[in-house]
Structure formats: structure tokens, C-alpha cells
Design brief:
- The two termini are about 25 Å apart.
- The chain has four helices and four strands, in the order αβββαβαα.
- It has helices at about 10-20, 55-65, 95-105, 115; strands at about 20-25, 30-35, 40-45, 80-85.
- Mean pLDDT is about 90; it is low at about 115-119.
Length: about 120
């Protein structure tokens, strides 16, 4: 994921977690907050409850790869945080993608067909 699409600073993560709205799934938690930019930025996190460093990094890689093809379909002007949950490590990749799509639909962050046809 390119840098312009990422949340990188801990202060950004804290702000989104404090003032954002969360949506939960057994595999992933999505936290969303409006930003005043033209892009949607994504941060990925996995806490120590996931496992050791290898398992946390694997969980983050899987979430990044799941969100990458969806980025162009996201509405602009949002900050997102994806938090891994323990079952994510055993889940198959299509199930992770389905969970992510479900969360994005619930949060109304996917562009509708009307939005995509408008210049």
C-alpha cells in the first residue's frame, strides 16, 4: 500500500480510535473517522493478544493485502483502522476479504454505482 494511503503516526491512530465509529466482525474490527483530505487512508494494527511478533506481522500483511484491491472502490475523505482479532490467523484469505467487504458495506464506505459514474 502506498504511503499516501496509510496512517503512519501514533497520534493519527489515537485520534481515530478515540473519535471514530467502530464496526466489529469476528475476524476484524474497523474504526472509521472523517478526514478533510481527498484520499482515504488506512492503518493496520494487531495487538499482543494476537500472538508473537511473527503472528502479528502475518495478520497485518493479510489485512493489507485484503484491502489493497478494494482501495479504488472506497469513498474519499475517511481514515480507517483495521484491527486484527485472533481468529484471523487461522482464517482462509477469501474469508478475510469477505469480512472486510462486509464491514465496509456496513459502514457505507464503498462507492455506490452512482458515485462511480459521476466525474
Amino acid at each position: 500500500m502506498k504511503r499516501k494511503f496509510r496512517l503512519t503516526r501514533s497520534t493519527e491512530f489515537k485520534r481515530v480510535r478515540r473519535s471514530g465509529k467502530s464496526y466489529a466482525h469476528p475476524l476484524i474490527v474497523l474504526i472509521v473517522e472523517v478526514n478533510l483530505q481527498e484520499t482515504t487512508r488506512v492503518g493496520v494494527s494487531a495487538g499482543r493478544s494476537i500472538g508473537n511478533a511473527i503472528e502479528r506481522n502475518q495478520a497485518k500483511r493479510r489485512m493489507r493485502e485484503a484491502i489493497r484491491p478494494i482501495l479504488p472502490a472506497l469513498r474519499p475523505g475517511w481514515n480507517l483502522i483495521l484491527l486484527a482479532r485472533k481468529p484471523l490467523l487461522q482464517a482462509e484469505f477469501p474469508r478475510i476479504q469477505a469480512a472486510l467487504l462486509q464491514l465496509l458495506q456496513r459502514s457505507d464506505l464503498l462507492k455506490s454505482t452512482d458515485d462511480q459514474n459521476t466525474p
